[in-house]
Design goal:
heterodimer, A: about 150 residues, alpha+beta, OB fold (Dihydrolipoamide Acetyltransferase, E2P), 4 helices, B: about 200 residues, 2 domains, five-stranded mixed β-barrel, 7 helices, 6 strands, about 30% helix
């Protein structure tokens, strides 16, 4: 019987991806961000690629299927893999309505190889956009300004 | 003044980020340099899947058909790298191209990106995939598959300018909440106060 179980587990391992991470329930507070500009510095430092200043660019990137994240106050970025049960978060529209919003989200957290991921199950609260940094940075990038 | 501030910030960032890191997978890479935070060329063999599949075992055969965030799991060390960007400079990810290789062994070439010194709190670099080919193939494929599928999805999104200025979902969001996301009145006020 034991040999049979071992054999079955090997067979399962050959056909399914290894479950190398374990999820845990979390509730996080953070801003919904575009992770490419945040990680890469392509548009400037981290303070310039969040909030109102970067809102239009964040819409573009989310529409383009670039992973969306939640940035918590301690600087941790959670890559969003599900949003209120919807698993195709890269469809270019699901996350546009919450870009740059400060939210409290309840979900399942995974970590693998230094990257944090969240499967958001429920939005506990949504304060809307609270970081009004366009007063400091204007439009980031400048060609996001209408008419440019 | 604000544009000057942004330009200065961008210049400082560019200076800080300009140096290219050499990493264990940089040899033989053909990836283009972008001058990004912690940029490191990386070419390696990997298995393609989507992130949800790798973490939870929820694995559609098509990896979500380009609508799920994708990962590559490096053959050498089983390290999972989140693919954050395509090689195209047009605000697009690489999910559609990678989904074509769902479940396959491949070789990828691109940039590892991210530097905690500049962006405190990040735990690891993400991956910008510029080129991909199936294991054993001689032919590299660029990762700029987004715009053709977008055109197929939104055939009526015609007009001038790049896709992101014509995308119906982006246009609807801006029409509702403005360019800063605070409503059209806030945009109008800022534009009036900052008119050249």
């Amino acid at each position: 019987m034991f040999r049979l179980l071992i054999s079955l587990s090997f067979l399962a391992g050959a056909t399914l991806p290894a479950l190398s991470a374990t999820g845990e329930r979390v509730q996080i507070t953070g801003e919904v961000i575009d992770t490419w500009c945040y990680y890469s510095g392509v548009m400037g430092g981290p303070d310039a690629v969040t909030g109102t200043a970067h809102h239009t660019c964040a819409l573009w990137c989310a529409a383009g299927g670039i992973p969306v994240g939640m940035l918590t106050e301690d600087g941790k970025v959670y890559m969003v893999l599900k949003w209120e049960g919807h698993d195709q978060v890269g469809d270019g529209k699901t996350l546009l309505s919450v870009q740059s919003h400060k939210l409290v989200a309840d979900g399942i957290h995974y970590e693998r190889d230094g990257i944090d991921y969240i499967l958001v199950e429920n939005i506990v609260s949504d304060e809307g956009i609270t970081l009004r940094n366009h007063e400091d940075y204007g439009f980031v990038p400048p060609f996001a300004e209408p008419g440019q | 003044m604000k544009k000057i501030a942004f330009t200065l910030a961008a210049c400082c960032v560019a200076t800080l980020a300009h140096a290219q890191d050499e990493g264990p997978y940089s040899a033989n890479s053909q990836a283009n340099e972008w001058g990004l935070f912690g940029e490191e060329k990386a070419r390696f063999e990997a298995r393609v899947t989507d992130a949800l599949c790798a973490l939870t075992g929820d694995c559609p055969d098509d990896c979500g058909a380009g609508e799920r965030p994708m990962v590559v799991i490096r053959k050498d060390d089983d390290r999972m790298l989140l693919v954050n960007k395509s090689g195209a400079p047009n605000f697009t990810g690489a999910n559609h191209r990678l989904a074509e290789f769902c479940g396959q062994d491949v070789e990828v070439d691109g940039l590892l990106v991210g530097e905690p010194e500049f962006t405190p709190g990040i735990g690891a670099k993400v991956y910008q995939v510029q080129l991909i080919r199936a294991a054993g193939s001689d032919d590299w494929v660029k990762t700029d598959a987004f715009v053709p599928q977008w055109q197929e999805k939104y055939p009526d999104a015609d007009g001038e300018g790049p896709w992101f200025r014509r995308d119906p979902n982006v246009k609807a969001a801006i029409e509702k909440d403005g360019y800063f996301g605070l409503g059209p009145d806030v945009d109008k006020k800022w534009l009036e106060e900052n008119a050249q």
